[in-house]
Design a protein that fits this description.
By secondary structure, the chain is of the alpha+beta class. About 35% of the residues lie in helices and about 10% in strands. It has one helix and two strands; from the N terminus they run αββ. It has a two-stranded antiparallel sheet with strand order 1-2. The protein is elongated.
């Protein structure tokens, strides 16, 4: 398929003092979601207007990026 990796999301390092506390879990949640929103924001306009790409065969094609699947592998809380 034509799927591509469009970004990496941050992993917040564990701190023994705060690990597994509700406030730390909430903090990690906010960091992840805000980062994902930033990534989506960077694609929002291009997904509506598209952008031209010169392909390997020399033909210019109009692409519209979209996210069909969010695949994330993260530790369970």
């Amino acid at each position: 398929g034509g799927g591509r990796l469009v970004g990496w999301l941050p992993i917040v390092e564990e701190d023994r003092q705060y690990s597994r506390t509700q406030s730390f879990v909430n903090f990690k949640n906010v960091v992840w979601h805000e980062s994902f929103k930033h990534l989506l924001k960077s694609l929002a306009l291009l997904s509506k207007t598209g952008f031209w790409v010169k392909c390997w065969d020399g033909v210019k094609r109009l692409f519209y990026p979209l996210i069909l699947i969010l695949s994330a592998d993260y530790e369970e809380q």
